[in-house]
UniProtKB/TrEMBL annotation:
Keywords: DNA-binding, Transcription, Transcription regulation
Keyword Magnesium: no
InterPro entries per record: cNMP-bd_dom, cNMP-bd_dom_sf, Env_Response_Regulators, HTH_CRP, RmlC-like_jellyroll, WH-like_DNA-bd_sf, WH_DNA-bd_sf
Name listed for the protein in its UniProt record: cAMP-binding protein
Domain HTH crp-type: 146-216
CDD domains in alphabetical order: CAP_ED (cd00038), HTH_CRP (cd00092)
Organism field: Kytococcus sedentarius (strain ATCC 14392 / DSM 20547 / JCM 11482 / CCUG 33030 / NBRC 15357 / NCTC 11040 / CCM 314 / 541) (Micrococcus sedentarius)
Occurrences of domain Cyclic nucleotide-binding (ranges): 12-132
GO molecular function: DNA binding; DNA-binding transcription factor activity
A Gene Ontology term for the protein's cellular component: cytosol
Length: 223
């Protein structure tokens, strides 16, 4: 994988001038991570920033009762490990590859030096974290103010879609029980809500592939 892809295709680096991008790219090294492998675990010190090029990563937070809650998924073009870089301290979550992942890896100490030379990297990292915080606040509001079918409709509409003519399809990025965890419900509640959407003619389910049959209806339901 060309190292410059880790720079030119990632928002936190894309705004740099070409010379600065080359400097950043020289500090990156590619890494392939198998599905199910942890980049790091909750409570560990993290010394690397991972820029995803292919694959998806889930971030989970362990609760005092021993259960795990999925708090976010990370897609290509996004980064993992930025919070310990900016805030310090151990990781407050575990980062796990859902599928095979190709990433560019930056050591925190090297990246900290680059951030000193190029303050825009810091600004863009903080901007990305701010947007995620706003997304998290909206998600919390949806979890507390909408029923499960509405939450699921909103989630499906937010997924990347493959469009061919009038055919719109999405793929669940995680197993259904993991999507249920992300949405804050039991797997049984998730399955019932998905069945309700299918019965109403809003979606058609085939394993992890879901056809969005009525975008207007889903949008109205999601509110």
């Amino acid at each position: 994988m060309p190292q410059d892809l880790c720079v030119t295709q990632v928002p936190i680096f894309a705004g740099l001038d070409p010379e600065a991008q080359q400097q950043v790219a020289s500090c990156a090294h590619p890494e392939m991570v198998e599905a199910g492998h942890d980049f790091y675990r909750q409570g560990e010190e993290v010394g690397q920033l991972f820029v995803l090029h292919e694959g998806t990563v889930k971030l989970t937070h362990g609760r005092a009762d021993g259960t795990q809650r999925i708090v976010r998924t990370v897609a290509p073009g996004q980064v993992v490990g930025e919070h310990p870089l900016l805030a310090g301290g151990p990781a407050d979550h575990t980062a796990t590859a859902i599928e095979p992942v190709v990433a560019c890896v930056f050591q925190h100490d090297q990246l900290a030096g680059l951030m000193g030379e190029h303050p825009r990297i810091t600004r863009d990292l903080l901007g990305a974290m701010s947007r995620r915080l706003a997304d998290a606040e909206q998600r919390i509001a949806r979890l507390t103010s909408t029923d499960m079918a509405a939450r699921l409709a909103d989630y499906l509409l937010d997924l990347p879609a493959a469009v061919q003519g009038r055919d719109v399809r999405v793929s669940l990025p995680m197993r259904k029980r993991e999507v249920a965890s992300y949405l804050g419900v039991t797997p049984e509640s998730f399955s019932r809500a998905l069945a309700r959407l299918e019965k109403r003619g809003l979606v058609e389910v085939s394993g992890a592939e879901i056809a969005l049959l009525d975008l207007d209806g889903l949008t109205e339901l999601a509110g």
